[in-house]
Amino acid sequence: MQILKCLFKFIGNVIKFINTYFKTFVFLFIVFLIFMSNSTSKSSFANLERIDLKGEIFDSSKVLERIINAKNNDNIKGVLFVIDSPGGSFAPSMELALAIKNLKEKKPVIVYASGTMASGSYLAGASANKILANPASFIGSIGVIMQGIDISELANTLGIKEQSLQAGEFKSAGTFTRAWTIEEKKYLQNLINQSYDLFTGFVAKERDLNLDKKDAWANARVFLAKEAKDLKLIDELSDYESAKKELEHLAGIKNPIWKEEDKLDKFLEKLSVESSSFISKTLSNTLKGINLNTF
Known about the structure:
This protein is α/β, with parallel strands linked by helices. It folds into 3 domains: 1-46 and 262-295, no CATH class; 47-141 and 221-259, 2-enoyl-CoA Hydratase, Chain A, domain 1 (Alpha-Beta Complex), CATH 3.90.226; 148-213, no CATH class. The protein has helices at 2-44, 61-72, 90-104, 120-125, 152-158, 182-207, 214-217, 225-230, 240-251, 263-286, and strands spanning 48-54, 78-85, 109-118, 130-133, 138-140, 222-224, 236-237, 258-259. Strands 1, 2, 3, 4, 5, 6, 7 and 8 form an 8-stranded mixed beta sheet that branches. β2 (78-85), α3 and β3 form a beta-alpha-beta unit. α1 (2-44) runs antiparallel to α10 and α2 (61-72) packs parallel to α3 (90-104).
């Protein structure tokens, strides 16, 4: 009975909230639509765009789509690619690298490393016209790694046995259910070596570096921005405003209008967070009257 009373109380609070704030939400939504129309109008005249690459790279589709759209938008005369990422998966990082390379063929691209530009994120921005970096940023980590665990002893303890059927000697190479064989390690190491050669070869070509001296600027080392500049991994130490000015100069833009983020997505995301917060708070207050006991 107590649970039912709390449930009805919760529903009542939600209805009360809707009745109290519905008109406010409608008003704010109308204001938002007016603001959106002005913002959209401004964005339609934008001639420069900022694209961000943040966090680990596993799915590059959203950033990739923005790069391609910027390339195909004749109104956009240049792109500032702001990177703060430790890297991630090799394939999506290469997708971004090739997209930036293609973008640069049509319009100037400036990379600004705001915090970390390492591993896959360094690969992603290596083709830019210039790479500028916050003096405290970490640059490099040009390397490839494959990791795995061996849970065979745990499985044995729990009485779990693996069984599988396969066609192809190396189909289960990299499995975590047993230790890797010598042949599998050789095969996987060769795969990693090829990936590393592809990585370093791409960077050397795009940054005009000596591939024979890759142990100095690659080898999975991470450098502070000043040392990265000395190794020619970046072009200049900078700050965000200076990076914007550099792109404006390179693109020949005297009256810069920067493309803004999608306001509708930001509004809906904020609305969702606030609604979730209200429901969570209401539910918490409702459940205060229930005593939870452990036996």
